[in-house]
Design goal:
Length: about 150
């Protein structure tokens, strides 16, 4: 492929087999490129931070200088009915036929809500046994009380 060209193809969306189509290409498509460029501009250039080729790799011999941008949007100043329309979209996505090997289609926030429900039902945050063992070893080394489990 010639440098600078992007190939597009239609592929099934992740976790969807019933009519869901995602645009896939080597660089995320023109929308992905536009979003990536917007992030570089508002986080890097406007944030007076590193951007594009100036962002350090994983080495730790220099400061990362990563910029951030936080945006607060009040949906009430746009079209009316945001909550109902958003709920309709999320319900539609959740109602799609999941791909083979999956029991359902999730949207952003679903895994977190499930985890919060699990924590509420269990009366606390579940930690793997090896983590509790390591924390209790550290507590012993520091001379503090070990974690109490329920």
């Amino acid at each position: 492929m010639q440098r600078g060209l992007v190939a597009f193809r239609r592929v099934p969306a992740a976790g969807v087999t019933d009519g869901g189509i995602a645009l896939s290409c080597l660089a995320g498509g023109y929308k992905g490129y536009g979003l990536a460029m917007m992030v570089e501009i508002v986080c890097g250039i406007l944030g007076d931070a590193a951007y594009g080729p100036n962002i350090r790799k994983w080495e730790t011999n220099r400061i990362a200088n990563l910029g951030q941008c936080f945006v607060a949007i009040n949906p009430d100043v746009f079209a009316p009915g945001f909550r109902d329309r958003m709920s309709d979209l999320m319900d539609h996505c959740r109602g799609l036929e999941p791909a083979a090997g999956y029991d359902r289609v999730l949207v952003a926030g679903d895994p977190e809500r499930a985890h919060m429900q699990e924590c509420d039902e269990n009366g606390g945050i579940p930690y793997p046994p090896h983590l509790i063992e390591n924390m209790n070893k550290l507590a012993s080394t520091l001379g503090v009380e070990p974690l109490k489990t329920v």
